[in-house]
Design goal:
Length: 108
């Protein structure tokens, strides 16, 4: 599964995904300055299944159904490696669901 990690997600999260998840960062791809629509379109055009973000307003500002990828919104505070690690099972499950159902999953 191809997963795009938004610029607001701590870098440590990338290494916590299972090996069968290809996780890329917006920064690595040169997309860190993209607005929401640009990022969603670029993710679709590059065959990503899921966007993982901490942008809580994204589902309310964009018609997510118009995009053929899932969106997982992380609602975790603080977004430290320890807290993220404790939620990885739930995050991986949410990515799997979002990738097939095109739904927004809030993980808190």
């Amino acid at each position: 599964m191809r997963v795009l990690r938004d610029h607001n997600i701590p870098h440590e999260l990338r290494r916590l995904f299972p090996k069968d998840h290809d996780v890329y960062t917006a920064q690595f791809l040169g997309w860190e300055d993209y607005e929401d629509d640009e990022l969603l379109n670029a993710a679709m055009d590059n065959n990503f299944a899921v966007l993982v973000t901490m942008d809580m307003s994204l589902p309310y500002q964009r018609n997510i159904d118009a995009f053929s990828l899932g969106v997982v919104v992380l609602d975790v505070h603080p977004a430290t490696p320890d807290v993220l690690t404790s939620r990885m099972d739930r995050l991986v499950e949410a990515c799997s669901r979002a990738g097939s159902a095109r739904e927004v999953v809030t993980l808190n």
